[in-house]
Structure formats: structure tokens, C-alpha cells
Amino acid sequence: MKIPKIHIKRIYEPAESTDGFRVLVDRLWPRGVKKEKAHVDEWAKDIAPSTEIRVAYGHIPERWEKFKGQYLAELKKNEDIPHYLDKWEDYPVITLLYAAKDEKHAHVLVLQKYVQDCYKKR
Fold first, then answer.
1. Would you report the helix, strand and coil content of the chain in percent, each value rounded to 5?
2. Minimal CA–CA distance to 28: which of 64, 9, 54, 7?
3. Among 4, 16, 7, which residue's Cα sits nearest to residue 98?
């Protein structure tokens, strides 16, 4: 099995042909983005962080490490992950889209690594 390349990108950046299959991985639809202009192939909100940990984190960098651990624990228990891995494995490139302004403390970084690790274990 060929492992897809997993890219990440803010949804506010323009769509490009190199994005491949574009997946929005936020629980809430991003402000100011019209669905018909977003170029989103799939909205995988069920693998985004739960509202509980997202609100507790509040995008406060000092809470990042705790949030990362909580989100990783959620991903490990998430029964939807295998479904997405199966569906995405035929695409050479997957771009995970997110809205957070802080690119160094965004949940998509945890998700990207988790998905890559899952593919490597298959």
C-alpha cells in the first residue's frame, strides 16, 4: 500500500491543484468561508477535538501540551478513524484544512502526525 502524503493548510489560503483531496477537520465551519467557494471535498468534523477539550484549551499556548495529550487520547478511541483511513488511502495527497490562526499550536498538527503514524502501521 502506498501511503498518502498528508499536508496541512489553513482554509483561508487559496485552493491549489497540489492539495489533492481536501478535508476540513474542524468541528465548526470557519467564519467567513462560503461552502461553495471552500473547495472542500469532505468535512470530517467527527475527528476534530471534542467541544469540551477545544473550549478548555481556548488556543492558549500554555495549555498546548495538555490539549495535545487529551486530543491524542480522543483520536485513539475514535471509531471513525479507520473509516477515514480506508477512504483516503487511494489518494496520493490529502490536505487537512483548519481555521486556527496559530499555526504552531493547532490541533491539525496532532491529527496529521496521528494519521501518518496509522498509515505506517498498516
1. 45, 15, 40
2. 54
3. 7
Measure the CA dihedral 116/118/121/122, to 10°: -110
Domain total in the chain:
1
pLDDT tens, residue by residue, 21-64: 999 999 999 999 999 889 999 999 999 999 999 999 999 999 99
Lookup: cell for 122: 498498516
Q: What is the pTM of this model?
A: 0.95
Supply the range of the domain harboring residue 65. Answer: 5-121
Q: Is 106 exposed, middle or buried (0-12, 13-18, 19+ CB in 10 A)?
A: buried
Residues ≥6 apart with Cβ < 8 Å to 55: none
